[in-house]
Amino acid sequence: MGSVMSDRRSPNEHSDPDAASGASGSQATIPAPGPRMLSEGQVVALWAEFKSGVASCPRDAAPLALAVDGATKSYRFVCTRCGNASLWFDVAPTGIQVRGGDDPSGPSASDD
Question: What does the DSSP 8-state code read for residue 85?
Fold first, then answer.
């Protein structure tokens, strides 16, 4: 039995064959789209959307996954398609508390 190859591409792959092969035939090369951080305002709106059903990425409308860190009781939205992500955030009775920091790759250390 033969295998079937998919034509699906990652959103980070170039669709221009010249760009993928390294050819420099054109002056205007469009960079591959990459993940961007979601703002604090977007996180607040997405949390409300998430609680009422499914939250969608503001960039490409794909579903967002909710990453959970049980040790620090924090959450993070990550787009299942393009990789957009929020900073880690806490859910408090007073509202969403986005954890500051330049590194969105992991939660902040626990304060206790």
Answer: B
